[in-house]
């Protein structure tokens, strides 16, 4: 089925380098599949090291003029981009739905969410203040200014193909950096459309450059940027093993890094919690994008005395979820992204059952008249989960809820922190003293307290431990794209 857009210009298939759309240096291309059917429906340029180098050449050439552009003028361009994103919401949502699979309503929400970062950093661009340090010695003036890091390489994931690239490019541009970007091989079309809109907004040539690459060519593209001393920062969202590779690879040139890596989020329900609110929060946090989010609850801990009541309420809600292609009416759970995702979800469920979990709901792939493709998986609830199961140690990244029992607050905290990851954590409780105790003891960069929807452009997003470092969004998000420079002027007495 063809992809029908109101503005066909948004469907791009080439790299954007130095202000021009161009084929890959090698002439190669790779296919993009629709996860709803599993079938290829278009192809885009397949970049290599030569394309990566051309992009960094263009970004380096554009850097100084862009850095010298006033913050007010950079903000105006970002505002124009923001307006164009919103004006093209329906087409962008169709692209997201087609290449990533999420329901159209969620895709529209992602467009709005991603646009908020562009607007936020347009406003932050004019607020990158410095400081004057009080005189320490007569005749000597000390001050601090903040300057753009330089060329930034942004490497983004497939699960939020618009929001993640907007969340990285917008602060970079606001700070005065130029950008080279590589979207995930599963979802290049949304990123290309977003960059086309930036071109229409009037950003100068070379300020934004995008190179697509297949799974086999991605290492060549990224490694070229890692080795290029002109690329001064890497910002990456994805798996912890890849994040560690980027950290090692950037060491020779000591690049600045922002790494938003894997998660293993706990969701704790205490016996004084409002159970209906906790179920609502879990539904929002867990089943958004079919569980394919880095802050999705992966381990749900429920106190013994409310375990059964919570499980019954949750099962009733999950059983009502409609699975199917994202463009079908009323669908809440779309397809998983690809065959590898289905394999991992199935492995985790089967391993849990083999280790004594009880299947309360779901537990298998879905194939029917509506969900006829190979990448659908039923929303699943597993009871009596234990720490010896794979889903305790690894992020499932799918619509699977394992329920663990706990008896005491101390046990819940210990279990929640028993992971090398620390991106997001959630808990539901009523007692004010407990809320502060648990908040202080959870080892996580983000904590949801009686709340399942955490993300906001105004809040810092990022993790601790092996979930990475650096923050995106908020006033802190601009800092990751800037250096602090100290100026000391003497002879003023």
From TrEMBL:
<dbReference type="InterPro" id="IPR029510">
    <property type="entry name" value="Ald_DH_CS_GLU"/>
</dbReference>
<feature type="domain" description="Aldehyde dehydrogenase">
    <location>
        <begin position="21"/>
        <end position="486"/>
    </location>
</feature>
<dbReference type="InterPro" id="IPR050740">
    <property type="entry name" value="Aldehyde_DH_Superfamily"/>
</dbReference>
<keyword id="KW-0560">Oxidoreductase</keyword>
<protein>
    <submittedName>
        <fullName>NAD-dependent succinate-semialdehyde dehydrogenase</fullName>
        <ecNumber>1.2.1.-</ecNumber>
    </submittedName>
</protein>
<comment type="similarity">
    <text>Belongs to the aldehyde dehydrogenase family.</text>
</comment>
<dbReference type="InterPro" id="IPR016162">
    <property type="entry name" value="Ald_DH_N"/>
</dbReference>
<dbReference type="InterPro" id="IPR016161">
    <property type="entry name" value="Ald_DH/histidinol_DH"/>
</dbReference>
<dbReference type="InterPro" id="IPR016163">
    <property type="entry name" value="Ald_DH_C"/>
</dbReference>
<dbReference type="GO" id="GO:0016491">
    <property type="term" value="F:oxidoreductase activity"/>
</dbReference>
<dbReference type="InterPro" id="IPR015590">
    <property type="entry name" value="Aldehyde_DH_dom"/>
</dbReference>
<dbReference type="Pfam" id="PF00171">
    <property type="entry name" value="Aldedh"/>
</dbReference>
<feature type="active site">
    <location>
        <position position="260"/>
    </location>
</feature>
């Amino acid at each position: 089925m063809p992809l029908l857009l109101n503005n066909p210009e948004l469907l791009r298939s080439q790299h954007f380098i130095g202000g021009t759309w161009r084929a890959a240096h090698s002439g190669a291309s790779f296919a993009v599949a629709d996860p709803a059917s599993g079938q290829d429906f278009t192809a885009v340029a397949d970049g290599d090291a030569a394309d990566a180098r051309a992009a960094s050449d263009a970004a380096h050439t554009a850097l100084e003029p862009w850095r010298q552009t006033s913050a007010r003028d950079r903000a105006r361009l970002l505002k124009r981009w923001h307006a164009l994103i919103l004006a093209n919401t329906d087409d962008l949502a169709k692209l997201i739905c087609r290449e990533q699979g999420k329901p159209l309503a969620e895709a529209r929400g992602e467009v709005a969410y991603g646009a908020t970062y562009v607007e936020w950093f347009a406003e932050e661009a004019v607020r990158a203040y410095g400081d004057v340090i009080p005189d320490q010695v007569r005749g000597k003036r000390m001050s601090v200014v903040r300057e753009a890091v330089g060329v930034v390489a942004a490497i983004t994931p497939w699960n939020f193909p618009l929001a993640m690239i907007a969340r990285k490019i917008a602060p970079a541009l606001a700070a005065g950096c130029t950008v080279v970007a590589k979207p995930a091989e599963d979802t290049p079309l949304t990123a290309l459309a977003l960059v086309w809109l930036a071109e229409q907004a009037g950003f100068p040539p070379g300020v934004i450059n995008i190179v697509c690459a297949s799974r086999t060519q991605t290492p060549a593209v990224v490694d070229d940027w890692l080795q290029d001393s002109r690329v001064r920062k890497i910002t990456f969202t994805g798996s912890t093993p890849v994040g560690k590779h980027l950290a090692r690879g950037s060491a020779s040139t000591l690049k600045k890094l922002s790494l938003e890596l894997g998660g293993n989020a706990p969701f704790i329900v205490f016996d004084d919690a409002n159970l209906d609110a906790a179920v609502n929060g879990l539904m929002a946090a867990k089943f958004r994008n079919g569980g394919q989010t880095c802050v999705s609850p992966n381990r749900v801990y429920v106190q013994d005395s409310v375990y059964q009541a919570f499980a019954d309420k949750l099962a009733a809600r999950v059983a009502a979820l409609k699975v199917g292609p994202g463009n079908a009416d009323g669908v809440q759970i779309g397809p998983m992204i690809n065959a590898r995702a289905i394999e991992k979800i199935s492995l985790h469920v089967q391993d849990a059952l083999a280790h004594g979990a009880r299947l309360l709901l779901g537990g298998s792939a879905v194939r029917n008249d509506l969900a006829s493709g190979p990448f659908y998986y039923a929303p699943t609830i597993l009871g009596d989960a234990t720490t010896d199961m794979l889903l305790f140690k690894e992020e499932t990244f799918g619509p699977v809820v394992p329920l663990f029992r706990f008896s005491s607050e101390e046990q819940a905290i210990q279990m929640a922190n028993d992971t090398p990851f620390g991106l997001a954590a959630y808990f539901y409780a009523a007692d004010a003293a407990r809320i502060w105790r648990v908040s202080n003891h959870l080892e996580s960069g983000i904590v949801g307290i009686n709340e399942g929807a955490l993300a906001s452009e105004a809040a810092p997003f990022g993790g601790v431990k092996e979930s990475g470092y650096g923050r995106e969004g908020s006033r802190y998000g601009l800092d990751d794209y800037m250096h602090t420079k100290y100026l000391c002027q003497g002879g003023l007495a």
